[in-house]
Amino acid sequence: MAVDPEVIAALEAAVASDPGNHALRLHLAGLLHDAERDSDALAHAAAVLQQQPDNIAALGVAAATADAVGEHGRADGYRHLAAALAGWPPSAAPPPQPVPTGPDQMPDTADELFQRWRDSPPLPEPEIGELSRPAMTLADVGGMDEVKRRLDLSFLGPLRSPELCAQFGKPLRGGLLLWGPPGCGKTYLARALAGELRASFYEVGLSDVLDMWVGSSERNLSTIFATARATSPCLLFFDEIDALGQKRSYLRGGGVAMRGVVNQLLAELDGATTDNEGLFVLAASNHPWDIDPALLRPGRFDRTVLVLPPHEDARRAILELHLRGKPVDHLDLRKIARMTDGMSGADLALICDHATELALESSVRSGTVRPVTQQDLLDGVAHTSSSIVAWLATARSYAQFANESGAYDELAAYIKRRRKS
I want to staple 301 with a disulfide (CB 3.0 to 4.6 A). Which of 76, 177, 286, 355 is the partner? Predict the structure, then answer.
């Protein structure tokens, strides 16, 4: 079937700009199949199925295009899954067809497509918190190789195989707790995970939830989860979860009102009255020992990843990142990285800021640009102390005396390594 190449090119540009628009991507896949570009069509249909494994129309396109490129076993898998979802005979498969985006079918010309795309509503502005679509992925995170490996094995791996998850009855949802000393990139990692999942990123802080009026905090939580479900697939990120989900045994007297907040959070995570499919809930904490144990049970934040200060190669990469685009002299960043063992990413950023200020001050006085020098960085190191020392003192007590479950084994090993070094 002849398909206008301009329409395909316009759709490809639109999908590249709005990768989360599954209807648009699926329509493009159907047109590519009609144009006998089956490999490209299969890639787009598979991208839709990564986010919506029960999308029967996408399964139909995937089955047809997999057959066309000779992947008959893969095509049969798509057909069986579609049949199971729709209650059809196993040999049946939904025919590939253009997908409507609303009351009308998709436009037939490039100009009409761009006009409708310009008129489409933007990402909704939430009443609470901040909603965005991160372009970054884990590849943009410097260092943290072990953390990224664990995230891939325990969290991303199953979500990248939605067909298998569907066959095993595993819902596309999950909870993950990132914990560790302050300033080590937990929020940055959460943004990268959202980009990896091609999901919207909904960041919520403590001040977005808590309210002075009784019942308002619980209402805020309900609104936050409703917004996240409405923008599925969505990665909902709670910072300082230890303050929001504090152990209820700690809440006495004036803290009784917070018990309702913890209970509301538990109810939302369980999805008892709603569907949390396509909702991934992440949280960050500097003090996991203060979190209510009920939040760490299976089905809630049952997976935890310790985010430690960066190692030497990662510290060098972080220094390069913060000095990028600035006038610099011949710098030995490897030496600075060796001198800053035990410092967080935030500490390294402060060192670079201090060095930049020295160079800028000198440039203002002389009227000419003076680049950042090695001595500027050494001065920055001398004026910056590790921000995790106090945290380590507290964490050491929990690793030694409150580790019956083994939850802090990795932390204990890190403290032991630091003691030897």
Answer: 177
